[in-house]
Amino acid sequence: MKFQDYYDVLGLPRDAKPDAIKKAYRKLALEWHPDRHGGAESAEARFKQISEAYEVLSDPQKRARYDRFGEHWEQGQEFQPPQSEAGPRGAGAAEFEAAFGAGEATGFSEFFRSMFGEQYARDFGGGPKAHARYRYRGADVRAELAVPLTVAIEGGKHGFEFLAHASCPTCGGAGFVDPHVCPTCTGLGRVRRRKQVELKIPQDVRDGLKLRLRGLGEAGEGGGEAGDLHLTLRLEDDAHYRLVDGQLEVQASAAPWVAHAGGKLDVRTARGWVTVSVPPGSRSGTRLRLRAQGFSDGHGGHADAFVRLTIDLPSVLSARQKALLDELAAEANSSTGPQ
């Protein structure tokens, strides 16, 4: 495992006084709190590292044990706690998590568990102590969901999963239990949890539509009401549909004889199936406007949609159609041969 230089983390000399340790921790914890960095994972990792350093250096016993084996080590070096050291042994990840539980991307480092795990568990009386909880509404969560255009058009339900924060079950959101940094959230007061949601595609679906899903945000503290999920839908192109300047474009194939002589095609738009008239002499890439057949415009109406034609042969041809195509090919070849 990598040795953790806790003095370097807090920017302190090895002879720093307790007041200096507390002051440095408060300053850095405020500076690196994830809420000040848009919830960035890098800030969260840095905040937890700062809290871990404070837990060790603010505790006289842990600091004395750390100092005995840390004076000749540098941050990032491989480190193994001496086996002959008298006193409390460390704890593996499984032992530590059995005592305190583990949230996703939470908890102290392997270095901390190995050096102080058992001592830390004993300080807690073998597990988390009871703590006072206060009823607070959970925070709202904001997320974006990519929805393929085919799914948006066909409707129904679309399942998705996202990461959200929940109040830490060990410390109740305080970040500390008695004088100790919480082992589950490492001082953050919350843990990451995956949530699965089945979303019913709304009839007025459109790119950028904002939905408020009540009760799907962060959990409330002390049994408080959960926050809401503010979800922004982002419609994505797929094999059959795409958005061009915010307007729906449907890909449709026309047989060569339909493109030549004109005809009808059935296509599905954001408002259902419609019949499209293909003008005679249409070429591949021709774009046909379908008025008010696009997605909701957000003002009670609908935007236009477009059909973009590709000229293609049907997958199944009758014998007569094959014969006519062979005749057409022979005529084309004879007309381009030597004169």
What are the main properties of this structure?
three-stranded mixed sheet; four-stranded mixed sheet; single chain; HSP40/DNAj peptide-binding domain; Helix Hairpins
Query: What is the correct CATH architecture of the largest domain?
Result: Orthogonal Bundle
Number of domains: 3
- Categorize the overall geometry: elongated
- Cα radius of gyration in angstroms: 32 Å
Biggest β-sheet strands, sense, barrel: 4 strands, mixed
* Termini gap: 83 Å
Oligomer: single chain
Helix/strand class = alpha+beta
Q: Helical residue percent?
A: 25-40%
Assigned CATH class of the largest domain = Mainly Alpha
Structure summary, number of beta strands = 13
Model regions low in confidence, pLDDT < 50 over at least 5 residues: 84-88, 126-133
Question: Helix tally?
Answer: 9
Description of the molecule:
The protein is of the alpha+beta class. It folds into 3 domains: 6-123, Helix Hairpins (Orthogonal Bundle), CATH 1.10.287.110; 141-236, HSP40/DNAj peptide-binding domain, CATH 2.60.260.20; 241-335, Urease metallochaperone UreE, N-terminal domain (HSP40/DNAj peptide-binding domain, Sandwich). 29% of the residues lie in helices and 24% in strands. Strands 8-9-13-12 form a 4-stranded mixed β-sheet. Strands 1-7-6 form a 3-stranded mixed β-sheet. Helix 2 packs antiparallel against helix 3 (41-57) and helix 5 (93-100) packs across helix 6. The longest helix has 17 residues, at 41-57. The termini are far apart.
